[in-house]
Specification:
Strand content: under 5%
Shape: elongated
Structural class: mainly alpha
Helix content: over 70%
Distance between the termini: 22 Å
Oligomer: single chain
């Protein structure tokens, strides 16, 4: 998947440079590949965030499966090996896939849970810590897992509310990012000399490249703040 993405970025950049050379526009030749790279980065970032949200939303179902297996008379270790849940396919490591891979392994449950506590995903850490305590100390597992499930459901609902509330901030950030480009396009449409400056003069190329860089920097900063508020930014 990563190689395919890199090939697409390279192909898009070559096409942009080719068009710029064909029409003698340094702006297209320089800014075009920059826009292709930014588009690829944002597409990947959107997939990563969507994957994390989907994985987090499925964690309560994983715990519920454990509870059902325990109620059927199986041990905690055996229940962990029988977990079956579809995983989220994405460009970044999936915390749900990481959790299931460790728990399904034919190894002591306490050892697998200890490894999972070192992950950087707080939801997986919570599940792993609970399983590690139960594996080491014993005791009734169903009540503890029921409380864990309720906690994870609360986390999912909280992040969904945060995502809904942050949509307005992202919409405002999108307008701010697009504003310089829209302004330049409007001026170029009205004034032929401005169009020539932006398309064929090195000064115009530099202005547009700087504008794109600054706009993307502001967008990334806003995206990081929103991601932390939602709990999807690690």
């Amino acid at each position: 998947m990563l190689k395919a993405g890199l090939l697409m970025v390279a192909a898009g950049s070559v096409v942009a440079v080719g068009i710029g050379v064909a029409v003698s526009s340094p702006t297209i030749a320089v800014v075009g590949p920059i826009l292709v790279g930014i588009t690829a980065v944002e597409w990947r970032r959107a997939r990563v965030r969507a994957g994390r949200r989907a994985a987090t939303a499925r964690l309560p179902a994983v715990v519920d499966q454990l509870i059902q297996q325990l109620r059927a008379g199986r041990s905690l270790a055996e229940s962990c090996r029988l977990i079956d849940s579809p995983t989220v396919v994405g460009p970044a490591p999936d915390p749900l896939l990481q959790l299931l891979t460790r728990l399904r392994a034919r190894r002591p449950l306490a050892e697998a849970a200890a490894e999972l506590t070192a992950t950087d995903d707080p939801d997986v850490q919570l599940i792993a810590a609970t399983l590690r305590v139960l594996a080491n100390n014993g005791g009734p597992a169903v009540p503890a897992l029921q409380r864990l499930r309720h906690t994870l459901i609360g986390v999912v609902h909280g992040r969904q509310r945060a995502a809904a509330e942050s949509s307005q901030a992202l919409a405002s950030a999108t307008l701010l990012v697009l504003a310089p480009g829209l302004f330049a396009a409007t001026v170029a449409t009205i004034d032929a000399q401005a169009a020539a400056l932006y398309l064929y003069e090195p000064l115009g190329t530099g202005c547009l490249a700087i504008a794109v860089g600054l706009s993307w920097g502001g967008w990334s900063w806003m995206h990081r703040i929103v991601g932390r508020a939602e709990g999807t930014q690690r």
